[in-house]
Amino acid sequence: MSAPVAGWVNRPSGCGFQMLAMILFWTASAHAEALVADLTSHLIAITTGFTGASVVLFGTSDGPGDIAVVVRGPDREMTVRRKSRIAGLWVNSQEVTFASVPSFYFVAASRPLDEIVSPATAALYRLGITNLEMKAEGGASPEVVDAFATALVRTQQRAKLFPSSVGRVNFIGERLFRTTIEFPSNVPTGTYLVEVFLVRDRDVVSGQTTPLVVSKVGIDADVFGFAGRRPGLYGAIAVLTAMVAGWLASLPFRSA
Amino acid sequence: MDIYLPIAEVSVDVFVLLGLGGVVGFLSGVFGVGGGFLLTPLLIFIGVPPTVAVASSANQLVGASVSGVLAQWRRGNVDFKMGYVLLVGGLAGSILGVWIFTLLKRLGQIELTISLCYVLMLGTLGALMMFESIRTQWRLQRPGARRRKLHQHNWMHGLPLKTRFRRSKLYISALLPIGIGFVIGVFSAILGIGGGFIMVPAMIYMLGMPTAVVPGTSLLQIIFVAANVTLLQAYTNRTVDAVLALVLLVGGVIGARIGSRFGTRLRGEQLRLLLALMVLAVAAKLAIDLTASPADPYSIASEKE
Asked: Mind listing the pLDDT tens digit for each residue in B71-96?
């Protein structure tokens, strides 16, 4: 086993033997901890060819127990609007703003969540989509807020930013575990938090938090940065580029 | 093959974008309309955020119009004088339009106003054009039918500031194109479109310009309107995705070239009928969107950090 550790940090998955060796290495050096986990990569680099990414989370616990994993993207303010029919036309008639909603959410567990944790624990650690804390601004009634929150979750699920079901954490033997986190191509950028919980007797006994950065790199990052810093110049360049491209495109007409 | 768009923050298939650009470019080549009315909804459909779709369409429109104008110019089909006179009216109109837009926004329901304006305007326009071209077709098929006069004389020809537009073979008051440009400027600022859609029928029916000169002259003024929109959007909303615009442009210029060749082969009446059908189709689509039950009445309006 001579592969340098840094060499496969960015490899998404599919290197089972190396993975096992890595986990064994972790176990040997970290017997003081009840739970040790890590990601195959701590950076999701969005380049021009980005089509989404998957990251493997793996780890080990100090004995029997269940594992739950939660991944949260940076919180955002989100406004949900509802259309209703007025004089035969569908018109946006009502809106509710939620102060901080995770822009990405993922949850996985080794068994169904309601079997391994109590509802109070699930709420405390925000395990599961029903336990996302979505506080509405303004004075809408609880039923209205509820309907809008449900719609928000549904929309995010359609965009694959919220999961439609709880993912699987697989155990290899009694103590080694792994799960795969999928990120779609429209994944928001920012710092994500990956939380791993060790659960025994319906309660969290140990936890670990690992950051994960989703960031644009290369040309995409340059374009985005430039558009933000010098918006006027960026706009002028965009117009000029389009004009030159249009002119170039019409050139062969002369010879034709 | 997918490409990640830095401002839209999604990745889409390059060939889908090239195809979209091609279809829209074809339309602009044939009719001289910008095609933003078609491009923007299609971009939203493939997952580009609406604000980015609007702004980036304007950006690609700049390039597509430049190449269209140059192609038409080589055939002598651009009336530059008419284009500039229209533009003067257009810029003044867009200032009033932006002011009305702000006012409507403060009152709420800007989206509804926009959609209703579209449906009413396009519906009326499309229906009128449709009747006109059907009547012409019918008359042409009857042998010995009386030839129509080149254009009718009415109050519009009594206005002062008479100017000669040589390319368009017109001797009319400059106030007329300035007025038309002004009205279109108001609408394009409110509706966020290049205005080719209203401009082309107005040129044919109100000014009486020869159909061959219309696309090039219309595209000429769209260059300026679209450039203005791109700059404003980039500066105030930061929603112009230059990468998206360039990919669309590559498909667009190919489509525009095929389109303008195709357009020159069509007879004026056929061109008008096709344009009328397209205007009606867009109006019908918008009317259906307004009245049909949406798949999901809820939508996420904004995701500000």
From this structure: 888 888 888 888 889 888 888 887 78
Going by C-alpha positions, the residue among B55, B85, B61, B77 that lies closest to residue B195 is B61
More confident residue, B302 or A238: A238
State which residue of chain A sits closest to B2, comparing Cα positions.
A49
The residues, ordered by sequence, that sit 6+ positions from B164 with a Cβ below 8 Å of its Cβ are B170, B171
Of B4, B223, B294, Cβ closest to residue A46: B4
Contact assessment for residue B252 and residue B64, using Cβ atoms and an 8 Å cutoff? yes
Residue A92 pLDDT > 80, yes or no? no
| Longest CA span, chain A | 81
B95 C-beta neighbours (distance < 10 Å), count: 12
In angstroms, how far is the first alpha carbon of chain A from the final one? 64
The pLDDT confidence band at residue A252, using thresholds 50, 70 and 90, is: low
For an interface test with A, which of B52, B57, B67 has the most A Cβ atoms less than 10 Å from its Cβ?
B67
CB contact under 8 A, A246 and B233: no
Interface contact B7-A90, CB threshold 8 A: no
Q: Which two tokens stand for residue A116?
A: 């391994």
Question: What size, in residues, is chain A?
Answer: 256
Q: Is A229 on the interface with B (CB under 8 A)?
A: no
Q: Provide ipTM, 2 decimals.
A: 0.76
Instruction: Answer whether B117's CB lies under 8 Å from B191's CB.
Output: yes
Q: Which of A51, A155, A227 sits opposite B11 (nearest CB)?
A: A51
- Asked if the model's pLDDT at residue B154 lies above 70, the reply is no
Which residue type occupies B96?
L
